[in-house]
Amino acid sequence: MNITIIAVGKLKEKYLKDAVGEYSKRLSRYCKLNIIEVMDEKTPEKSSEKEENMIREKEGKRILKHLNEGNYIIALDLKGNMISSVEFARKVEQLALAGNSSITFIIGGSLGISREILQKSNYKLCFSKMTFPHQLFRIMLLEQVYRGFKIIKGEPYHK
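Structure tokens predicted for Ribosomal RNA large subunit methyltransferase H (159 residues):
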């Protein structure tokens, strides 16, 4: 299985890079992982809704350049479906069984994901109604993907 994560923004902190490296190493037993970072836009302090939409659109165009036609696209979105780790694992497993061997996850910037990218997505996933920094969220997603593969394989993993 091929897993691609397209994320807006670069990781700067060493501890975040180390965590991504650790999960990347763990996931290498289960899938081919590709992480693509696209540049984020600076958001003015008191931005209007129009300015925020323009920022999401600019970031969306950068994401769009990296989307592959045959990939199943999962956008991480606050309005998406909230599912358990076991349900997530089953979703990944069902996609693989249906012939979708390439899954792309999209993590937007601090303002979320553009309408165009959301429309191109096959599925919208929400981890929580809480707000998380998108840099930290990358690690949370990697952990859930890793947990999902452990569940699929019937291997032990802490609960």
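The mean pLDDT is 94.
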